[in-house]
Design goal:
Blueprint (H helix, E strand, L loop, with lengths): L8 E3 L1 H11 L1 E4 L12 E8 L5 E10 L3 E5 L3 E10 L2 E5 L5 E3 L3 E7 L5 E5 L3 E10 L1 H6 L12 E5 L2 H12 L4 H19 L15 H16 L7 H8 L3 H12 L3 H18 L4 H7 L5 H12 L11
Antiparallel strand pairs: 1-3, 2-5, 3-4, 4-11, 5-10, 6-9, 6-11, 7-8, 7-10, 9-12
Helix pairs in contact: 3-4, 4-8, 5-6, 6-7, 8-9
Length: about 325
Amino acid sequence: MNPPDPAIRQHTPRDLQAYGRRYGLDYRVPDLSPQAEVPVVSGVVREFSPRPGMQLVTSDVEVIHRYDSRSRASSPLSIIVLLEGRAEVALDDERPLTLMPGMALSVRLEPRRGLVASQPAGQRLRALTLSLDENCLARLGMRSPAPGGAGCHPWRLPVPLRQCLEQTLDAPLPGEALRLVLEGLSLQLLAHGGRFAAPPSGTLPRLPPQERLRLERVRDALHDDPAGDHRLATLAELAAMSPASLRRKFRAAYGRSVFDYLRESRLSLAHDYLRRGYSVQQAAHFSGYRHASNFATAFRRHFGYPPSSLAPAS
């Protein structure tokens, strides 16, 4: 992973056009001509490849002139995160949405149905975009939302994940440590924002709104308290369903089983504890694992590297 020079620099309309050719975007600066040698934004833009088929672009810039963009390339799944600032976004045929700090957007991009975004002037804009190709999604056991469907899904970042992203942008780690952290954070983003992608086989049934709301109670209970002692019978009562119905309908709604979702939430929490300096044993205990060895196996299988690589040296 070789990020570009992180030095702060000014980006002119011509620079934006160069970025557009690289990232599949059409940029427009309403107040300036495309050839103007005037800065539109000033700051840092970095590009990383946490895994094959994953692209992560981070930006921390001051917006001097309002600029607009429209995607023209395909992306089966992109997750856009706003940490600071404001942006107006919309798919070509959908109502616009205002992204505020702490919000994220999961979206499928198609050339005929691009994402239009507008960034107002006079603000600091801290954002990142995680894009995955079809092969990467398939390796993760997922596929993109169906073409032409409701392809734009806003959601709110969990506070611990937002804090980790901000800390990483503020004080990047060197070399391999940075790659490991960015890979872990990318997988956490995918664990939350990737729930809008479907499993690779089968057709998801359409669930009645009230039934989906009951399933969301279960999902929220797992997400808000991953370290809790969750049992299927208790969760089924929360959803007002039988255990068998909950198992079947939860997988249909979210593309993974109840306890797969719980495991991902626990590992996300543990990753945050490790980033904050806790030991492997502490992270395992605080995230609901009774045995550190079981935790270490699950962590390595999920993130691709051992938890000891993030824990402080003893």
